[in-house]
Design a protein that fits this description.
Blueprint (H helix, E strand, L loop, with lengths): L1 H8 L10 E2 L10 H17 L2 H21 L7 E4 L2 H11 L7 E5 L4 H8 L7 E5 L9 H7 L4 E7 L11 H10 L3 E5 L11 H4 L3 E5 L11 E5 L44 H17 L1 H21 L17 E4 L3 H10 L2 E2 L1 E3 L2 E4 L7 H13 L2
Parallel strand pairs: 1-10, 3-4, 3-5, 5-6, 6-7
Antiparallel strand pairs: 2-8, 7-8, 9-12, 11-12
Length: 379
């Protein structure tokens, strides 16, 4: 199965003509379809100018909201567009009442922008509790159980930890949060695209993701899911004209919110990234996320087995079902190893104490076999 998908789609990604790309958890490879979509955008800009907004671009934004929603099984009207997750988090953080529940729970393994949003609100009385991982791989659910209480406004954490690739039980986190009367926000940037996601089944209040990595959309485009029954009560203090129900009325005297998740949008979205993302989604929808997961899971297990046999002791979750397509290989000098590998034609990334390798559906077992040979021969 992994070989069949890679054989069909690898030629869609020209970077493989020049190197072996194993860094999708930092940036998904550019597809020919995304480039064609971006060219389509440029042609529209060139031929129609501002009229393209009303004739085409407005519909492209709505198409992307809808397709993001289908990707994560979200109901219609529950997706807001943003240029990045920091922007989306800022809107959410501004919409929560901390008067009686000042505590926000995050973890040491989350991407820092999660915690930063609420640390920046310390002067407003917000207290950030950082759960420390006991093993640098995951955070036990028991730690959340102990930390979340009647003073907790929000649990904000990752579906997949960028630091270890470990998959958290988002449904269990939502349950822990809700039993204490708190909200649950899950950052799915390292999950959506490589894992099947159903936000309604997970019962999370907010879910975020974006095009940069596994969704093959590049920079400048992200999404925010908000639970529909929660949305009407949200009045963010960070906002913009796209949140107005009748934005083309240009009324500077009164802010009237959209009834759906668009009330959580801000300013004008960047259109070229929207088009690039539509091209990436064309491929992912064609393959199907369950097939993507099956292909990458096989690659991951092969990579872990080979790395372990080579004595590299990968830092990954203990159980296969908790592993994503991020494998951390210990290194005494990750930056030097990554430079040396790049010189040999392998693109991976460095994180503290580790070389980070992330195969995706367009990779083959031979990719990481060759990588491991190069990495170990240089030590």
């Amino acid at each position: 199965m992994p070989h069949a998908i890679a054989a069909r789609y690898r030629a869609e990604f020209p970077i493989f003509e020049r190197c072996v790309y194993l860094n999708s958890c930092s940036l998904g490879a550019l597809s020919r379809r995304s480039r064609a979509r971006m060219n389509e955008y440029l042609d529209l800009w060139d031929s129609r100018g501002a009229s393209a907004w009303y004739e085409t671009w407005w519909a492209a934004l709505e198409e992307l909201r809808s397709r993001y929603g289908k990707l994560i099984h979200a109901p219609a009207g529950s997706i807001a567009l943003h240029p990045n997750v920091s922007s989306a988090l800022g809107v959410v953080a501004s919409a929560i009442d901390y008067a009686h529940r000042p505590k926000v729970v995050v973890t040491s393994l989350d991407f820092p922008t999660i915690g930063y949003q609420w640390m920046a609100k310390a002067r407003d009385g917000v207290e950030v509790v950082v759960l420390e991982s006991p093993d640098g791989v995951s955070v036990p659910l028991e730690m959340y159980e102990r930390a979340v209480d009647e003073r907790t406004a929000l649990v904000a954490t990752s579906h997949v930890f960028f630091t270890s690739g470990a998959i958290q039980d988002a449904s269990a986190l939502a349950g822990i949060s809700h039993r204490a009367g708190a909200l649950c926000l899950v950052d799915g940037y390292q999950a959506a695209g490589q894992l099947p996601v159903d936000v309604q089944a997970l019962d999370v209040d907010f879910y975020l993701g974006g095009g940069l990595k596994w969704l093959l959309g590049g920079t400048g485009v992200a999404f925010l899911y908000a639970r529909p029954d929660l949305t009407p009560a949200l009045s963010p203090t960070v906002t913009g004209w796209f949140a107005h129900r009748e934005q083309f009325r240009f009324d500077s005297r009164a802010l009237e919110w959209h009834d759906d998740a668009r009330r959580l949008e801000a300013g004008t979205p960047p259109l070229m990234p929207v088009y690039a993302q539509l091209g990436g989604l064309d491929i992912l929808e064609e393959i199907g996320i369950p097939a993507v997961r099956a292909a990458t899971a096989a690659l991951i297990e092969d990579l872990i087995a080979l790395a372990t046999a080579a004595g590299l002791a990968p830092k990954v979750a203990a159980r296969a079902e908790e592993r994503s397509a991020i494998v951390m290989l210990p290194s005494p000098d990750p930056a030097a190893d990554v430079r040396r590998l790049a010189d040999a034609g392998f693109i991976v990334d460095a994180r503290p104490g580790h070389v980070r390798v992330s195969p995706y559906f367009y990779n083959l077992p031979d990719d990481h076999r060759a990588l491991l040979e190069c990495l170990t021969n240089g030590r």
